[in-house]
Design brief:
The chain has 534 residues and is α/β, with parallel strands linked by helices. It has 15 helices and 23 strands. The longest helix is centred in the N-terminal third of the chain and has 32 residues. The chain is globular, with a radius of gyration of 24 Å. About 1% of the residues have low confidence.
Length: 534
Amino acid sequence: MKLTFLGAAHEVTGSCTLLEACGKNILIDCGMEQGADIYENCDIPVPPSAIDAILLTHAHIDHSGKLPAMVAQGYKGPIYSTEATRRLCSIMLRDSAHIQEFEAQWRNRKAQRAGQPAYVPLYTMQDAETTLSQFLAWPYDTVVDVAPGIQIRFIDAGHLLGSSSIHITITEDGQTRTLLFSGDLGNKDRPLIRDPQLPPDADYVVIESTYGDRIHGPRPDYVSQLTAILQDTLDRGGNLVIPSFAIGRTQELLYLLRIIKERKLLRGHDDLTVYVDSPLAVEATRIYSAGLTDYYDQETLDLLAQGIDPINFPGLHLSVTADQSKLINMDRFPKVILSASGMCEAGRIRHHLKHNLWRADSTILFVGYQSQGTVGRKLLEGATSVKLFGEEISVKAKIATLEGISGHADRDMLTDWLSSMTKKPQRVFVNHGDDEVCDHFAAHVEQALGCQAVAPYSADQYDLITGQCTAKGVIVKVTKVSDGRRRANTIFEKLLAAGKRLLSVIDQCKGLSNKELSRFTDQIEALCDKYSRK
């Protein structure tokens, strides 16, 4: 029995761990790295065709995003998850494949002109479709035989619809060991979904530490906060624009907005209109409304029993097409606009910012973490203008935040979850946290609970019979670059992103008149002539 840590080791994203037991190779999560990369991760030490099963904690791309790449490289086995996770992956993996294919198209146009080899996408839409056919969905608290001697059970992690901790029981050569992967553990008292389920005992625990050095504090009154921001904005005649992550956060906000409308908390604005303008968020919202009662909290179940849809209400409009999106900003009536991406780096939210940032009567409300260097972070830090679509937009709108809304458990919640076990684990492995946070939380676990805890690096391997580390990975930090080079890289990455967006816009131009298409073509050709180095 061996456990090898591959991804999310001293980093927050790219979750992936290899379990070798009973002659089988089993992956727990297969996520994509997102954002800044701190350490170089080792490759999976066996080929995809030699993996026997994959266990998936939840649908977020940093846990599921490389599944189609595994399939493209020869993985043919089952992917175990809950039903809600399977359904959310059906839209998230297709969306990710679409992005991969679009990037390949853009790169290959450039490579062809330069006489360079063709760029092969990480995976295609067909790979995503094949991946989805390999899912096997199971309810919470059901014992599943993955292989002779290996059983698993999904436990509600309270992070996202269908999110799970995974309890694994292994019996090999007369020895039995239990292993518990926390997955991403959720915050408490959130809309729609239940609090994290208390964990069963386990010999070894792998626990996330996203907020392993922070305390959220008392739970704020989200409804009162949002009502006050709405009342102020609508009274001024402006729009409330909310950059929101498409899956999870958007649906939570719809839940809060339904309460505000149902209780008539807004004075003089009973006819409030709310737009969800993101195809991915629209699909996710439909999944949330699709009767997945096994995953809802009691409050949501009570609403459903009364015939009330918890995230639907009069005045809600779901915008899918580009034309529907454009019409939102043609309507001058005050409204709420929920759109992706959550950090304002891509997607339709940038159009809504362009139309609202310069308006002193509008408000931009942030409801999630904003990474350094993103448009969202710049706005939160007081930027007086930002550049969107090559145009400098003055910031006159109010910039606000919804305090305390988080999808992750904090340090004390993580500690309480561990301490609820009836016996101490033999060892706790800490991952899925920033570099120093992993070490900080491991030290906290040892001090608070009196059990051994360690934060492994990529390629660190542990024997689950003895509990000892049997191999250490080579710690390789991603090469640092100068500030000037970093800025140049960031600017060039933005240019690449703009190129990808241009392809998307071109794809949406089918059906325009010949005159419009000709004018757009001339504009693109003029830009190419201006900046071409050949």
